[in-house]
Amino acid sequence: MARAPGMSVRLKLTLSYAGFVMLAGALLLAAVWRFLLRYVPDGVIITRRFVPNRSDLMNAFVPAATVVLVFLLVFGLVGGWILAGRMLTPLARITYATRKAANGSLSHRIRLPGRRDEFRELADAFDTMLARLEAHVAEQQRFAANASHELRTPLAIAQTLLDVARNDPTSDTGELVDRLHAVNTRAIGLTEALLLLSRADQRGFTRYHVDLSLIAEEATETLLPLAEKRGVTIETSGDMTPTVGSHELLLQMATNLVHNAIVHNLAEQGTVWVTTAIQPDAVLLVVENTGGRLAPQLVSTLVEPFQRGTKRIRTDQAGVGLGLAIVKSIAQAHGGTLTLTSRPAGGLRVAVRLPAYQSSSTRSVSWPPPSP
Predict the structure, then answer these.
(1) Which of 156, 165, 249, 368 is most deeply buried (CB count within 10 A of its CB)?
(2) What does the pLDDT look like over 316-337, one tens digit per residue?
(3) DSSP label of 38
(4) What's the rounded Cα separation, in Å, for the pair 290 and 371?
């Protein structure tokens, strides 16, 4: 935004310091006049010795007072300029870092030394903001690159199928349609997942009073046929876990967790544990599964978009690689956290922690919302 040029903060502080010094000097001289010189009589004072009267004192006092005021003015300007410069040095470093960040350099940090004060608190907060912004931008760049790759793959496959069909008019159109349908279904699923992830990030949803245990039970019942097909046993337990949020998004979160636990499991006789618990100020949804042992380095990358288990795999149930990324975004949009840890016996433990519903301070709102 264009602004008209004005005085610098340093000059304003300098003038302020000088003005206060001059005001203090003027008040001191006024006090001398008010409480001392006014009581000295004016005129000839007859004594054996010379006694100065008020005029004599004024003639001697005014030139000296003028010199003192001039000295105070110069001292205030010079001292104020130096003092203001020293005080504003941290602000200059913060401004420099801000300009570098505005030009795209998010790796620069202020790292202001010294004891804590207002400027150093501002510098530390700005460094923290830059670190988070740099991490967010890097994550968005990786996400954009991965999304472009994932979206390009089904389109390239469809283009190849169409080219083959065009060059071979005698090919089986039924098989071509089936393969195009599968590719198109995958592209639609990826697009819907991206839209859901964007919606969770923007937090544009209405919040209601919901029971996370019922949501987990609903997600488990929906995926029970898939678990039976893959020979996976699902065990559920827990208490009522009231919270506030979007029923649709929380159901998607629970569904993704249970789906991942079923798909990324043992080939035979796998198990999934779905547990809910309540704490004084939070509710927990924990989903564990059996499987191979996972390295901590791998576990830390599973929430990144398009990560599927131990590598990029594509099966009929593998999904589009956004399951845990969506879970993390939904949890954060509800003021919660997502924690992933590997189980010592093999498999993964995923815990979602959300703020608990406080019935004493929040009015209960049922799901679904009442009809108008």
Answers:
(1) 249
(2) 444 556 778 888 888 988 889 9
(3) G
(4) 43
Residues 6+ apart with CB under 8 A from 351: 284, 285, 286, 338, 339, 340, 341
Q: Where does residue 293 fall: left (phi above 0), alpha (psi -120 to 50 degrees), or beta otherwise?
A: beta
Residues sharing a CB contact under 8 Å with residue 115, sequence separation 6 or more, in sequence order: none
Cis peptide before 305 (omega within 30 of 0): no
Compute the distance between CA of residue 142 and CA of residue 317 in angstroms, rounded to an integer: 24
Selection from 202, 186, 272 nearest residue 230 by Cα: 272
Residue 120 contacts residue 139 (beta carbons within 8 Å): no
Distance separating alpha carbons of residues 244 and 116, to the nearest angstrom: 38
Question: How many whole angstroms separate alpha carbon 159 and alpha carbon 186?
Answer: 15
Residue 313's pLDDT is what?
39
For residues 51 and 44, the answer to whether their CB atoms sit within 8 Å is no
Q: How many CB atoms lie within 10 A of CB 54?
A: 16
Q: What is the pTM of this model?
A: 0.55
